[in-house]
Amino acid sequence: MFNRIRRLRQVAAIASISSLVAGCGILSSDSTEEEGPIVVGTTAAPSTLDPAASWDSSWELFRNIYQTLLSYPSGSMTPEPDAAESCQFTDRTNMKYKCELREGLKFSDGHALDAQAVKHSIDRIREINVNGGPAGLLGSLERIQVLNDREIVFHLNKADATFPFVLATPAMSIVQPDAYPADKLREDGTVVGSGPYTLQSYDEGKQAELLKNDSYEGYAERKNDAVTIRYYQDSPTMVAALRQKELDVAFRGLAADDIVDIQADDEDELQLIEGSGTEINYLVFNPKDPMAGKSAVRKAIAQVIDRPAIAHKVYKDTVEPLYSMVPKGLTGHTTGFFDDYGEPSKTKARRILAKAGITTPVPLTLWYTSDRYGSATKAEFQELKSQLEESGLFRITLKSRPWKTYVAGYQKGEYPVFGRGWFPDFPDADNFIAPFVGDQNALGTPYVAPEITETLLPRSRAESDRANVVKDFEEAQQILVDDARLLPLWQGRQYVAASAEISGAERALDPSTIMMMGELYRKTSW
């Protein structure tokens, strides 16, 4: 009889994923069509099907239906060839990066996948330039040169040792040029890709049906023939479906109460794979808002917020307090907010506001998404409201929207303060700083920080040995602490709940905790 998994399994960037193979029976699989698709539940529905528009967890679907030049085979912490046969810097300055494609690649519609398709796919990201979209990842790219059908060179405008990691993100998914216009997004709800699976059908916000792509050429192993992904509004509904055997796996958005219940369950019907992760949750302050734009207001909030109380009361210790935008476990992590502010203090916060001549209580509206990060988000913001109002220094209004309209709102600058979560694009401290600063960033809220964008990040990217850039990242994080425009709250762990008949879940998460559906399969022997 299968025993529920109890011990910690490292499933994200802070430990080698190859260590996960112990336990939970990695057995051979003879998946058949008669068994039906593996059914996976999540609360993180895609906001778009076009890679040029997305810098969010739409990437979960992209990783499985599109292909990138580089990616992360199970167990790898560094990008390795996928659509490419080989990639490497060809100069000592890390400014020319050449890739050679595998021979005979094809899209799902039968068209050849060649170097021109790669150039088209990446050029259109910058041409369309969606606000808050992935163009911000390509700041170091000067131009793309096609040498022939299989060879392509990326010319950078500055040294960038992280560029291979950028090419491995699902944002750089390769699309069929005839099906994806160079100057506008594709919005017909269909996909032409070359990934491990084809998208057979898609019901926005409800379900995606994936079928094994027999013409796929790349690193990914598919241990099943088909996967159905179902999108839920909340964790209790999703977990109820798992218990009723309507799902095989539940991932992304599991609420703390449901995690605790599964851990305490004495039955052997479900397994819970638990691991440390690099997901972070934080508040964003709009610099154009009359109140949130004031440094003293932001610093007073930073002084009042009780992170351990949020982690314990709301998340039942399934997350841990975070005092830096770079999470624990990555080179360059600090505890800057704790070092500068210490324990929560109403007295210190009152002094900050009084010194700036700000009358209390300060009115502020905090926004959160109602359906993206799990059902605990509402409780988290209610706790934030309680903490701030109990100080006597703030009067808080809470508002929420579903993710799709929520994104549009913060990209237009409508929210004074809003909550965001972040799953890393790649396992490097750079990816917890660069996406949030500069005129063009993942938040759609410009953050001018020239010392970071013009000095610290470029200097760190010139260094291939990431252990040598700790000082640069420490300095960048201190700037973020001093500005207090981004307020880290907690760092998450990763949980996957699955039926006892499913195996491979412990190998399915890549370094950015994106699930590679091909690793999942039904056990056929013990």
Describe the 3D structure.
This protein has 526 residues and is of the alpha+beta class. The protein has a domain at 277-493: Roll (Dipeptide-binding Protein, domain 3), CATH 3.10.105.10. It has 13 helices and 19 strands. It has helices spanning 59-65, 115-128, 163-167, 235-243, 256-264, 295-304, 307-314, 336-341, 346-355, 376-390, 403-411, 450-461, 470-483, and strands at 38-42, 70-71, 80-81, 84-89, 96-101, 141-146, 151-156, 197-203, 207-212, 226-231, 249-251, 270-285, 319-321, 362-369, 394-401, 417-422, 486-499, 502-503, 521-522. The strands form 4 sheets. Strands 1, 8, 9, 10, 11, 12, 13, 14, 15, 16 and 17 form an 11-stranded mixed sheet that branches. β6 and β7 form a beta hairpin. α6 runs antiparallel to α9 and α12 (450-461) packs antiparallel against α13. It is globular and about 70 Å long. It starts with 37 loop residues before the first strand and ends with a strand. Residues 1-33 have low confidence and may be disordered.
SSE inventory with pairings:
Elements (H helix, E strand, L loop, with lengths): L37 E5 L16 H7 L4 E2 L8 E2 L2 E6 L6 E6 L13 H14 L12 E6 L4 E6 L6 H5 L29 E7 L3 E6 L13 E6 L3 H9 L5 E3 L4 H9 L5 E16 L9 H10 L2 H8 L4 E3 L14 H6 L4 H10 L6 E8 L6 H15 L3 E8 L1 H9 L5 E6 L27 H12 L8 H14 L2 E14 L2 E2 L17 E2 L4
Parallel strand pairs: 1-10, 1-11, 14-15, 14-16
Antiparallel strand pairs: 2-3, 4-5, 5-7, 6-7, 8-9, 9-10, 11-17, 12-16, 12-17, 13-17, 18-19
Helix pairs in contact: 6-9, 12-13
